[in-house]
Design a protein that fits this description.
The complex is a heterodimer. Chain A is globular, with a radius of gyration of 18 Å. In chain A, β7, α6 and β8 form a beta-alpha-beta unit. By secondary structure, chain A is α/β, with parallel strands linked by helices. Chain A folds into two domains: 178 residues, P-loop containing nucleotide triphosphate hydrolases (Rossmann fold, 3-Layer(aba) Sandwich); 65 residues, no CATH class. The two termini of chain A are 32 Å apart. Helix content of chain A is 33%, strand content 24%. By secondary structure, chain B is mainly alpha-helical. Chain B folds into two domains: 32 residues; 209 residues, MetI-like (MetI-like fold). Chain B is built from eleven helices and no strands. The chains are: A alpha/beta, B mainly alpha.
Amino acid sequence: MTSAGLSVQGLSAHWDDLHVLEGLSFTVEEGQFTSIVGPSGCGKSSTFAALTGEIPLESGNVSVAGRPVVEHGREFAWMPQSGALLPWRSALDNATLGLELSGTPRAQARERALPFLEGFGLEGFEDSWPSELSGGMAQRVALLRTVLMDRPVLLLDEPFGALDALTRRAMQDWLERLWEKHRWTVVLITHDVREAVFLSDRVFVYSDRPAAVAATVEIDIPRPRRLELIQTPQFARMESEILTHLSLPSSGSK
Amino acid sequence: MRRAIPATILFLLLLGTWQLYCTLGHIGNDVLPSPSHVARAGWDDRGDLWANTLPTLLATTLGFTLATVSAFLLSLLIDRWNFARQAVMPALIVSQTLPIVVLAPLVVIWFGFGLTPKLILVALVTFFPVTVALVEGYSTTDPDAAALFRSIGAGWWATFRKLRLPTALPSFFTGLRIAITYAVVATVFAEYAGSEKGLGIYMQVAKNSFRTDLVLAAVAVTSAVTLALFLLTHLIERRVIPWRTATDGRWEGTK
């Protein structure tokens, strides 16, 4: 067993008056891809809000790479669902925003971003405004911004949630290939069970609010994984196991 | 340029009606001079008119710059400390309830015939719309982007400079355009109440000697100056907010 990239123990929190997390515990190993699936509004995003310090913790411990997280900020690179690109910054300047805000000089930040442009399919679009980018491209810029921050754990909140089905498939395939190369420690929130199975080593199924982990499903499908995998019986079995935990009919991709 | 055609037609139509009314109705030039007469009188007196336009323009741009810089500084305080907002906003609103026509002569009594009363009046009328535009612009900041900045660990100043201020720019320019249309009129008010030079005092003197044609010529110059400044804010906006020019169709309407 590898070392714990992220360990969450007994997290409880309120978001305003809403009791969102209750005794939430899970472990993500370093270099592992993990997904969180669960009913709408169950507290998936609240998990990230609690980790990044957006909502205060009432109880519980969080540790990253074995060290307890005391002050929030430097452990997690968070990507909001909307991508939150700044319309007045070019694609490249958006990608380097995280670095710049963490104190890296602009020129140096740009230099760090350049080698990634090809892999992220952004070559030739460095100077485009976000409003000129396609939906998938905009999310890749946001993902590059998240990755470039070079923080131990990536928190991705439904990065492909707003994309059309075809683009989403292409993005999943792309992210899988990219991840195989870089092996980041990732926690991905998604409502797409197929996406969770395809990308993850481990899937946490959340209960209704207040959220806790209702089931953990290990996805022991070897990598590299390609889209054809979706049609295999092994994949279908994993998918239906998660759907059972979610108590949803096992047909369809929800 | 094509979009200016309907406005130009309407403008010419109005001038034509006015001209016909004067010619056919045999109205005396000392009561209502025709547009052609006003143009001729203004042209004949162009040296004097120009000499009085410059001080007005100077006072307007100076007062306006002063107001904009102070509005920015104040908006910063308001954005940083809620206490400042609660303290200042009511005072700002009250400043807009003051009847400027009555105030102008008083300010001249207090500060004399020089530049100061003009600056004060211009600042008084333009400060408010610019401040409000900035403060309301800040509040339209994308909550996701704000959360992103917090998650990265950005401080207040970095968040302000790189997120809240750019967010507020479109709103700021809207406020700027509203304010600039008040600014020239405010200067003219101040000059009308008493001044050594300027379009306002020019109108005052012309009126007192029953030169309605020269009064109207000065009015036309005032409008032209306001219009020019208004267009200038558009030009600056395009330079400062290039990302909106790229895709936002709203720009098309202003060409």
